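Notes to self after the call with IL:
- keep both proteins in one doc
- input above output, always
- annotate only the second one for now

Protein 1:
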Amino acid sequence: MSQSIDLPRVDEFLQELAAIQQTGSKRIALLGSRHVPITHQYLIELMSYALVLAGNHLLTSGATGTNSAAIRGAMRADPNLLTVILPQSLERQPRESRDQLEQVMHLVENPANDTLSLAEASAVCNQEIISRCQQLICFAFHDSHTLLKTCSDAEEQRKLVTLFYFD
């Protein structure tokens, strides 16, 4: 009688070991929910500040909540190491986001997605972000379908994924 044990493959262990041992800068995507308590936003801001201060290039999107906190931290550390990729054009962003986004040096707009729903445009945007990063850090709820799909897609692309749940 043979039982199957679900162990990670050797190449996954090697990939994680290499990521831990890498001392140079990385391209790190930081994404998450819009619905984040202010105390959590402060922690995310501190994390992004520390990541950028360590020389990492941070990628995120332009939504309120997690992404806005990531932008604040990165802008404080080194604005040149921040890239913000929007799901749609800048004009489609809420006013409170636009004020912050207008200060970002490396801002990528996607006006071709203006005709899509925000959920559809966000999914496309998240794919672009993970295609550009080496590692993804994500803050989500268990019902954050778009974000959880993004994490799954990043894992399939062999990216290092760290997922934090709010609930």
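Protein 2 (the one to annotate):
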Amino acid sequence: MTSLTHLAAHLAAEKKSAEVTDWAARIGWVVGLLLFIALVYWLMRQGWKWRGSLQSGLPELPAAPETAGEPRLSLTGRYHGSTTAGQWLDRIVAHGLGVRSRVELTLTDAGLTVLRPGATDFFIPMDALREARLDKGIAGKVLAEGGLLVLTWKHGDTLIDSGFRSDTAAGHNEWVTTLNHLISTTEGAR
């Protein structure tokens, strides 16, 4: 016990204060970290632009016609992106197709109107639609099995898969059934 008391008295008598933080080194590390983060974001942006320039041969997206007809189905939800058909990780970024957003889909006899607040709206003519299916993922977004409505359509010479998720996923089956029926009817008329 006396040695403990002696040690405590010795430490209390010592007049050394705690080490002062080296602010210059700390600020240097923080600035270095911020520069590294900025570099990573800049490289990601350059990659996105490069991918867009590689896809520059993709034609402009069609606009919805003034008279598209009576709506057969409508859906509100999320647009998760578009990829080259069959390549669920090959995101298409040209013409704003890579931008995730809210979406309002309206299906008519003329085709599918895709309204995206804050992003480019587009129209998929009925004769461009190839298939509708339920899937679990597209372009970095993975959901439960069947949680994503994927539409395959032809734009120019490219087959594209576009992924949508309804606010009420129960309606996905109706979309698949209706779209595939309309697609088969349209193919029979060609």
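Annotation: The beta strands are 73-84, 101-107, 111-115, 122-125, 129-135, 137-138, 141-142, 148-155, 158-166. The mean pLDDT is 83.
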